[in-house]
Structures are given as structure tokens and as C-alpha cells.
Amino acid sequence: MSLTVVAVICVFGLLVLVHELGHFVTAKLTGMRVDEFAIGFGPKLISFQRGETVYSIRCIPLGGFNNIAGMDAENNTAGDRGYCRKSIPARMLVILAGSGMNLILPVFLFFSIFFFSGVTTPSTEPILGTVLPGKPAAMAGLQDGDRILRIGDTAINNWTGFVDSVRSNEGKQLTIYYERDGVEKSTVVTPVYDAENKRVMVGVTGGVETSHPGFFESIGLAVQKTGAVIYAMLAELLRLVAQLSGENLAGPVGVVQMTGEVAKMGLVPLVNFTAFLSLNLGIINLFPIPALDGGHFLMLLVEAVRRKPLSPKFLQYTQTVGIALLLVLMVYATKNDIVRIFFGG
Q1: Which CATH class is domain 122-210?
Q2: Exposed site from 188, 247, 302, 308, fewest CB < 10 Å?
Q3: Among this protein's residues, is 217 annotated catalytic?
């Protein structure tokens, strides 16, 4: 089984498990009857029953569901334990719990990264972190860990000075003096314009410095980072809505590809990527679109204002519209994925 397949199953399995667990636990706590808790769709691979609930793992690992009795008021077989018979606040709690868990999970993931692997910050020292293969620096013989001393007659005292010198000398041969293992050496490098990154470069990255925060400091940093990522995602979503632009939308194909690429970089990048996906899933699920958690929550708000349930026919209509809208967005995002992957768009 390829690394990509394993990574996709583990990442999506975790995100779905956490999301559905939020719905499941709150449904149980509010006295609802849960007939099945499932991870995946399609035929069952593993299934067992504990009490009134069947727990199953199904063959398609890209989703999951809770079969809560009474979601359809006309077919409620659970009496007062049916979803439709519970108070509006209880139903709101169950609906929001899935996305809430996806917003909480990254705190634990970021904490694990900070506490066990440390916090990395860009180094200001003019020391090469990674020399990219096939780029001018690598072709000139530079290696990871080399300390840049001078470019021509200009002393380089920090990383910013090195970057500025490179970017201001596109196409010019630069004599770079560097130190490796205590020995000063020199080589000639020609900076080139990289169309993909849209800047002049020689193909190197700066070094990083790693610190190891304590337990409580790691928690604080994890909360801060989660908040910062949520803020950045919301700002980007508002920008996309304002510009009516969907060019950066990624669909299932793109997410699977990115998961495989990140998995090759190691466990820490994969955990970090999982945290970002979890936040993305949590935020998108809160959109007020029928068929998403946010759409269900909106319908409950309308019911609270009207002081009576919405008609089953109206709810069915909104669900159909919501599913159609999601399918259109998925098709568009998949088109983006195909263009990006196969045509370099």
C-alpha cells in the first residue's frame, strides 16, 4: 500500500472520527437514541453492537455518519428520545458539535508538535538551511550548513543581506565566499528568475532555530496558532466571496495529492497539514448551506423564531438545493485540481 493511500486513510479517518464523535457524544448526552455510528460509506467492513448502537467501519473511508433516531420527524421511532422531540438548544448542540470538534482537534495537534518536536523559527544567521537540487547554488557546489561570509567584496552578516544581494543581481555571476567545517572556500553562482516562485533566487532556504517550550507554554502556543489560522482562513474566504473567485479552490483530488506530498516530508509536516485540514473542514461545515451543519443550524434558528417546526416538504427542498450546490462546487473544485495537476495551471 503506497504512502499516499496510508496517509489519506489516516488523515481523513481521524478528521471524520473526530467530527462524528462530536455529534455522537452530544446526542447521547442529550438523551437521543443513536442507532449507528459509522466511519466511512458503502458496505460494512467491521460491525458490532454495544447497547442500542451499532458501530461500523465501511469500505469508503472518506466520510461517516451518525444514524440518530428521529432526524426525520415523520419517521420517528424513538418517541421522546428522537432528535425531533428534543429542545432546540439540544439539537443545536448536536449539530454544532461536529464542527466544534474539528476546530478543537488542531489545538491538540499543534500542541503535540510544539511539545515533542519544538518550535522552529527562521534563523537570522547567513547559514544555508536547504540547498535545492538542480538549482544554481547546488550546481555551484554549495551545501546545507555552509555559512556565507562575503559576496564579492561585500560582507554578509545576516540572512537578509544574503537574500538582498541575490535578488538585486539577476543574471550576474557572483563570487560567494563561504565557510564549511572551519575552512573558507569560494564559488561562482548566477542568480536566476524563478517563474514558479516569481522571484530571483539561487535555490536555497535559510536555516531554522528550534526551541522546546514546556507543557503549559505549548498549550498556549497551540491555542494562539489555532486562532491565527482560523483568522487567516476566514479572511481568505471573505476575499474569495468578495471577488467571486474560486480559482484557488481545491477538491478531493487536490487534497489527496497534497496529503501524499506532505506525507513524504515526514510526520510533523503531516500532523501540521492535518490540523489545517481539520480547521478547514470545521469552518466550511458551518457555512449556512442546507446539507451542511451550518445549514441545519440556520433551520433551527428559523424554527426558534417561528416557534414551530418547518414543514418536512420545505426541509426536503432545501436539502436538495444544498446538495446540488455542493455538487456544483465539488465539480468546479475538481476541475481546478485537474488543471493544476495535469496542465500546471
Answers
A1: mainly beta
A2: 308
A3: no
